[in-house]
Amino acid sequence: MPQVCICPKEAAQLTGTKYSTAKALLQRIRAEFGKPPRAYVSVREFCHYTHLSEEEVSKALNKSYSIA
């Protein structure tokens, strides 16, 4: 099943930043979309904000959780 939400650890891996920087990024995304603190950030929202390809992000997220 494809992943729908992004957590700070994954945001850090995708952007190549530290965990604390990724947390701040997700906070800015929540603010941009008018979401309350601690609300989930979807892959679509993350990609819209960061201008990353939704397809590539989904592949990267699902690759890290796939069973070899």
Summarize the amount of helix as a percent range: 55-70%
Choose one word for the global shape: globular
Q: Treating each run of at least 4 consecutive H or I residues as one helix, how many helices?
A: 4
Describe the largest sheet: 2 strands, antiparallel
Question: Radius of gyration, rounded?
Answer: 12 Å
Strand content: 5-15%
Spatial strand sequence of the major β-sheet: 1-2
**pLDDT under 50 segments (min length 5)?**
none
What is the mean predicted local confidence, pLDDT?
90
Please report the distance between the alpha carbons of the first and last residues: 15 Å
Tell how many strands the DSSP assignment holds: 2
Order of helices and strands: EHHEHH
> Structural class, judged by helices and strands?
mainly alpha
Summarize the structure.
This protein is mainly alpha-helical and 68 residues long.
Task: Give an overview of the whole structure.
It is a single chain. The protein has 68 residues and is mostly helical. The chain has helices at residues 8-15, 19-32, 43-50, 54-65, and strands spanning 5-6, 41-42. The chain has a two-stranded antiparallel sheet with strand order 1-2. α1 (8-15) packs across α2. It is globular and about 30 Å long.
Strand and helix layout:
Elements (H helix, E strand, L loop, with lengths): L4 E2 L1 H8 L3 H14 L8 E2 H8 L3 H12 L3
Antiparallel strand pairs: 1-2
Question: What descriptive keywords fit this protein?
Answer:
68 residues; mainly alpha; two-stranded antiparallel ribbon; 4 helices; 62% helix
